[in-house]
Amino acid sequence: MKKVLKFILALTLCTVTLAGCGKKADSAPASAENSGKALSGKHLKVAMSANYKYFETVTVDSKGKEVYEGLDIDILNKMSEDLGFTYEIMNMPFSSLIGSLQAKQADFVISGMSYTEERAKSIDFSDKYATGKVGVLIKKGSDIDSVADLNGKKVACSTGTNYEDIIKKIKGAQLVTFDGQAAVTQELAMGRVDAAITGGTGAKKISSENEGLSFFVINSKEVELGSLDTFNIGFPKGSELVPIFNKEIKKLKEDGTLKQIITKWLGEDYVD
User: Fold this and answer.
1) Backbone angles phi, psi at 146, to 5 degrees
2) d(Cα 131, Cα 202) in Å, to the nearest integer?
3) What angle (nearest 5°) sits at the alpha carbon of residue 95, between those of residues 89 and 100?
4) pLDDT at residue 20 tops 80
């Protein structure tokens, strides 16, 4: 009898230990409500680099729990709800994201990642869920509030970026380049240039970190912007998840969910 009791006690302790070994997923556990959904019962590993303001950031709450938030997190949670999967986040440097897919360590990446032909050689991409914009940084109190106002002004950007071509298309704008965005921002803050052009989310972030700066987003009707970056979800080559997520992205565009999420985090100017 003692041997039986010892066996039951040992089995109970083992079960408790195993239950505490796995890292808890960031999403809610599967439920009967998820049955019949495209990915019902699936638990997916999601890789991201959670240091991209507005898209994904992570903080630790008073209980020591990691809390993720941002545009990509809201989209991820909505997809989890609609498709019926649970997930856990693998937070890593941006440079490691593609490798995590190639090694099949992650099921997909959602991390403000843009499609490029070079990346597409290594991983598969979903359809775009957002499009990058172009922003104009100015000093607060400036009389510049539209592209037309850049006529006759010194407009800066980082050397070697496609923003040089955009500035050249702006009537009367005087192109000035500097080595890196930090130098561009410094020159603007010092008043040695009148405005600076960079990515839309970058402009929003820089203005939030520099009290004396503000920004506006260029309307594509004002100047030809060329090919803009798109934000896409990355998958391992040949992943069966791609068509499922493409269908979900299409749904979220059509029902207005993507517009609502993008407006919440970036503003209406960033909606396609």
Assistant:
1) -155, 165
2) 13
3) 50
4) no
Q: What pLDDT, on the 0 to 100 scale, is given for residue 27?
A: 56
Q: Is the pTM of this model over 0.85?
A: no
Q: What is d(CA 271, CA 263) in angstroms, rounded to the nearest whole number? A: 7
Identity of the residue numbered 181: Q
* Contacts for 66 with CB less than 8 Å, ≥ 6 apart: 58, 59, 60, 91
248 CB-side CA count, 13 A: 22
- Smallest CA-to-CA distance from 157 within 148, 146, 145, 168 is with 168
State residue 263 phi and psi, 5-degree precision. -65, -40
Residue 104 has pLDDT above 80, yes or no: yes
DSSP secondary structure string for all residues of 59-121: EE-TTS-EEEESHHHHHHHHHHHHH--EEEEEE--GGGHHHHHHTTS-SEE-SSPBP-TTGGG
Instruction: Summarize the confidence of residues 40-48 as an average pLDDT.
Output: 97
Q: What are the tens digits of pLDDT across the range 141-196? A: 999 999 999 999 999 999 988 899 999 999 999 999 999 999 999 999 999 999 99
Q: What's phi and psi for 126, nearest 5 deg?
A: -80, 175
Closest to 198 measured CA to CA, from 221, 233, 229, 236 = 229
The amino acid sitting at 65 is: K
What are the tens digits of pLDDT across the range 113-146?
999 899 999 999 999 999 989 999 999 999 999 9
* Full set of structural domains in the chain with CATH: 43-131+230-270 (3.40.190.10), 134-217 (3.40.190.10)
